[in-house]
Amino acid sequence: MRNILLLTDFSDNSINALHYALKLFSGASTNFFVLHVEVTNTFLTDDLMAAGNKSIYDSLVKKPKNRLKKVLVDLEEASKQENFNFEMLIDHDVFVDSVNQVVASKAIDLIVMGTNGATGAREVIFGSNTINVIRKVTCPTLVIPEDFEYTSPKEILLPLDLSDSISGNAFKNLLTFAKTHSEKLHVLRVKPNDEISVEEQKDNEYIETHLKDFNYEYHVVSNTPLDHVVNSYTQTHSIDVVALLVQKESLFERFFTGSSTTEISKKLKVPLLVFHV
Questions:
Q1: What's the average model confidence in pLDDT over 236-242?
Q2: What is the pTM of this model?
Q3: Angstrom distance (rounded) from CA 127 to CA 141
Q4: At a CB cut-off of 8 Å and minimum separation 6, what does 10 contact?
Q5: CB contact at 8 A, 33 and 6
């Protein structure tokens, strides 16, 4: 059975991401671990002052636990016909540390979470958490943009940086996902000039071997910024998911060059699927 980690801060956006995961894995036996992290510095002063005569337990533990129970009840109700198992997890820790611990202890195969482009303290915090998970948690991660309505991820776009290799495990994992959930893979090799790179030379042979039984397109684009290529391609093709092979943050940084957390989120029009090299 797959082990899927669902992250929630109880926002509408994060709840939408949870329901996306239910639809994505419909028909497959799946263990869902639903994690809410009460970040340490968010509850020390304001919550204790607001608690009044209530116990510290009620203020810091009971309330989020009850909210998470309700989330699980809703998820179970929405998937009564599925072979899904749900387990709720609450932690008081640094957000990324908590996620890393669960990934290791529960043998997580995929993280699903939301991000958004809204303004306001809570949204910015959660947006930052999304970016930190992608950068600092070595686990495949699927990020669902704000208000995104589920559509089957039939067509996946994979932009490749100059040095990205498709001969490693990250691409194999993406290909497994694509063959399970999708119908077509679009591969774009994006490079800063017209010179033929080493990885580009390897692409055709590897693709012909591993994608011969799968529908795909392969294109090379030169002298155009990566984010412009991706934006243009997603506007002219029916792309349902953008995938990235992240190697030392290079592609991730190029994709979002010069962007603040909120600007990064606004660029995300379809789900983002990240595999770490």
A1: 94
A2: 0.86
A3: 14
A4: 36, 64, 67, 68, 71
A5: yes
